[in-house]
Fold this protein.
Amino acid sequence: MDNPRAPLFAAIGVALVVVLGIVLLVLPKMGQVSTAKDEYTAAVSKGQSLSTQVRALEDTKTEAPQNQAIIDQVHRAIPPTVDEAGLALLLHNAALDAGFDLTTSASASRSTTPRD
C-alpha cells in the first residue's frame, strides 16, 4: 500500500474540502452580510428622511399660532353664508348714492334703431 500518488490524492482531497467549505459556508454568509448592509443603508436613509419630516413638523407647530390668526382674520372678513339679499341691497344703495336708479334702468327698454 505504498502508493506514490497518495500525497497527491490527499492534497486534492484537502483542496476539495476547502472549496466545498467556501462554497457551503462562506458564500452564503457573504450574501447575508451584503443583505444586512443594504438594509442598514435603507434604514439610515429612512431615519434621515424622518428627521427631516420631524423638523418640518416642528417648524409648522411653531408657526401654527400665526397661521391660525390669519385663518381667523379671513373667517371674519368672509361671511359664513351667502347673503344675496344683503348684497343686492348694498348694491342698490350704492347705486342710489351714485345717482343711478337700478329699478328704472333695469326695466327700461332699449331702442334697436340707430340714432341720427
Observations:
- The radius of gyration is 44 Å.
- The chain has a mean pLDDT of 84.
